[in-house]
Amino acid sequence: MASINVRLIYGHLTDKVTVTASSEATGFPAENAVDLSRSTQWKCNTTGDQTLTVDLGSAQAVTGLGLANHNLGTMDTGGYTVTLRYSTDNFVGDDNIAKTLVLADDSDYFATFGSLTKRYWQLKVITGTGTSMEVGEFYLGTAKTLANNPDTGGAFTDQPTAQTLMSQSLSGVATVKKTGRITRAISMPFTERVTAEWTVIEAIHASQDGPFKPLFYVPRNDSAAPTEGDAYMVRLTDALMPHFESFAGIHSFTVNLKEEQ
User: Fold this and answer.
1) Strand (E) or helix (H) holding 198
2) For the stretch 216-225, what's the b/e string if a residue is b when 16 or more beta carbons lie within 10 angstroms of its beta carbon?
């Protein structure tokens, strides 16, 4: 069965932009949703219609959305309508839907759509009762499908890692407990006969300031090309993109990603 190649959503356009919300719970300001950290959250303190709005400062081309540490799947399956919207006048008179989101659960999520060059963007939950909106990261950027899949077999790894805490009792008995969420370390070796793939990864690496700023990784192993679904918020972990070789016109390199805490 043919498979759709992996995708990356990168560019972090919402990094520390002007952000407003319909309301803020104490200790969970709207700024938490655009600080490139999944561990800090914005929380709304009301139910019903709720919004999180960002001003990119100028019209920017957007083709991909990433969401992390959110409860929008719970809200969507609970009868709410969740949309990504855009505007030219901060939603005074111009209010358009870029995509109606369909979230099966609260996992990290991606969505792609045709390029829209707009300044104001908004996550909006419409109607419903009893649940307040929560978002750890609201990420807008560029969606890119890689030219080919990484090398398969023993070379490709997607290793889950449980966070643990070890304690020792007075009797000397050591206990290991799982804490927090399970994350993944992902290694993707590529072999290309042209430089196109390397050039794309290098450009993404540069746009992320090396390993420092996150992106969204979308693995695919089906024959369809979904425009939304589960993703992982990750970082590139190689500062200089090592393991690059060129011989007889073949370029070989490895991309290493680590899922965000």
Assistant:
1) helix 196-207
2) bbbbbeeeee
Contact yes or no for 9/62 (Cβ under 8 A): no
Counting every residue written for the chain, the total comes to 261
Type of residue found at 42: W
Asked if 87 and 122 touch (Cβ cutoff 8 Å), the reply is yes
Which of 191, 183, 184 lies closest to 155, judged by CA?
191
Per-residue pLDDT, averaged over 241-250, amounts to 57
Rounded CA gap, 143 and 111, in Å?
A: 9
- What percent of the chain has a predicted confidence (pLDDT) above 70? 82
- HSE at residue 196, side-chain half, CA atoms within 13 A, is 8
Tens of pLDDT, residue by residue over 72-86, are 999 988 889 999 999
d(C-alpha 166, C-alpha 179), whole Å: 10
Q: Residue 124's closest CA among 85, 91, 77?
A: 85
Query: Does the domain spanning 7-145 belong to CATH 2.60.120.260?
Result: yes
Tokens for 41?
């959250």
- Residues 180-190: pLDDT tens digits? 677 888 888 87
Domain(s) labelled CATH 2.60.120.260 in the chain stretch across 7-145
Residue 197 identity: E
Q: Which residues pair with 109 in a beta bridge?
A: 67, 230
Helix/strand/coil for 49: coil
pTM for the predicted model, two decimal places = 0.87
Say which amino acid occupies 86. Y
Contact between 43 and 35 (Cβ < 8 Å): no
